[in-house]
Design a protein that fits this description.
Blueprint: E1 8-9, E2 12-13, E3 50-54, E4 60-64, E5 76-80, E6 85-92, H1 95-103, E7 116-119, H2 122-133, H3 135-148, E8 154-160, E9 166-172, H4 180-190, E10 193-198, H5 201-208, H6 219-222, H7 232-237, H8 244-247, H9 262-269, E11 279-280, E12 285-292, E13 297-302, E14 310-313, H10 314-325, H11 334-337, H12 367-390, H13 395-399
Helix pairs in contact: 3-4
Protein name: Regulatory iron-sulfur-containing complex subunit RicT
InterPro entries: PSP1-like, PSP1_C
């Protein structure tokens, strides 16, 4: 992804070469459009003095602008860290920062809130860029160290602090990993402070990106930021086949899109009776075999006659179940099933014309007819030659 001002080349923007996080901030999936930018505050109102700053991989933090610096979106600033300082880019200012902090439950009245030191100088930017250039070769070496120590983990990314005094190693693992020996190796080889941070497989997939089975970019790498847990019950409610190859995404977990329509299915299933509830008739006991959530139909079969299914509506099924609770039985399911009329499928005519899609294809040649014509032609030529041989050469010889 890239904005219009820095078109991509080989997957990376030409302008900033920042892999989708350019200075105009229009490439990032977490960008918030500042629709209050051109609006002036009422008289006497002071602007909100908190700033949103973004770092690598879309990580965002909020800082107090105690120095009242004049900052705008895209400015590179030096921010306070637990030890030293960090370098980030301003992504949002003004009243929208207050709304974002309220949405994320971040208090703006903290006395120990981190602050912005200054706009980044050229020296700060040089140190920051040189540290980021080291991240990729360090990641290759770090993965090799983890393999040598036989640790069941994967180093997914490395992020240097702006002053190059600390490196954060992001990793994924199925189980708990004892990486104390690995930290010693990292500290000895890389000569910097080390911090290990575990991330989920969904977060790793959102960072890497890709194309899903639907043919579009992954939701987690384009717009999705809230990774909710997905269970197999979501597939059961939507009557999907429990095939792990189809239900799993590129992260190896269940697809996030299984939760998109789950609430609608749950609301629709409220009018359906439970599938394990049996229907008692004078003809016999019927068991639910299939449900159609969209049309509101249910199929029942008598015990012992599993091949014969009878389709009834959900309202009819609820009516019969209520009669059964009053210890009453209906005669048979056929009475209700006969009342249903199957929907006639509409036959669509060709409004474009009677042209076939294969009208431009070359017609198939009939080899049998061609062969028959060739044989007939040969036979005719042979017959003519035989007739010519039988005729006399001239009339004089004939009279003699």
């Amino acid at each position: 992804m890239a904005c219009a001002s820095c078109s991509t080349k080989d997957g990376q923007p030409k302008g900033c070469k920042n892999n989708g996080t350019c200075g105009t901030d229009s490439c990032n999936k977490l960008t918030v459009f500042d629709w209050l930018a051109n609006m002036s505050l009422p008289s006497g109102e002071k602007p909100f003095n908190w700033i949103e700053v973004r770092y690598k991989n879309g990580r965002k933090e909020y800082y107090n602008n105690k120095e009242n610096l004049t900052l705008s979106i895209g400015d590179i600033v030096a921010t306070q860290a637990k030890a030293g300082h960090d370098i980030g880019m301003v992504t949002l200012t003004g009243e929208l920062v207050r709304i974002q902090m309220k949405r994320k439950n971040i208090s703006d009245k903290k006395e120990e809130a981190l602050k912005i030191y200054r706009k980044a100088s050229q020296k700060d930017i040089d140190i920051w860029s040189s540290a980021r250039d080291k991240e990729e070769p360090m990641k290759v070496r770090a993965r090799q160290f983890a393999i040598d120590l036989k640790l069941q983990m994967k180093i997914s990314d490395i992020e240097f602090q702006g002053d190059a005094s600390k490196a954060t190693f992001y990793y994924t693992a199925e189980e708990r990993v004892d990486f104390r020996e690995l930290i010693k190796v990292f500290a000895r080889e890389f000569r910097t402070r080390i911090e290990m941070k575990q991330v989920g497989f969904r977060q790793e997939a959102s960072r890497l990106g890709g194309i899903g089975s639907c043919g579009r970019e992954l939701c987690c790498s384009t717009w999705l930021t809230d990774f909710r847990s997905v269970s197999t019950s979501a597939a059961r409610y939507q009557q999907l086949s429990l095939n792990p190859q189809k239900l799993a995404g590129q992260c190896g977990k269940l697809k996030c899109c299984l939760n998109y329509e789950l609430d609608t299915y749950l609301d629709a299933l409220k009018s359906f009776p439970k599938t394990d509830t049996k229907i008692y008739t004078e003809k016999g006991t019927a068991v639910c075999q299939k449900t159609d959530i969209f049309k509101g139909h249910m199929w029942y079969a008598y015990e012992g006659e599993w091949n014969n299914w009878y389709k009834i509506t959900t309202s009819q099924a609820n009516e019969i179940i209520q009669l059964n609770k009053k210890k009453k039985k209906i005669a048979s399911l056929e009475e209700y099933a006969s009342e249903l009329v199957d929907d006639i499928k509409a036959e669509f005519e060709n409004v474009v014309g009677q042209d076939s899609l294969t009208r431009f294809d070359s017609p198939k040649s009939n080899n049998k007819r061609k062969n028959n014509k060739r044989r007939n032609n040969r036979n005719n030529k042979n017959n003519k030659n035989n007739r010519n041989k039988r005729k006399p050469q001239n009339s004089k010889n004939a009279t003699k």
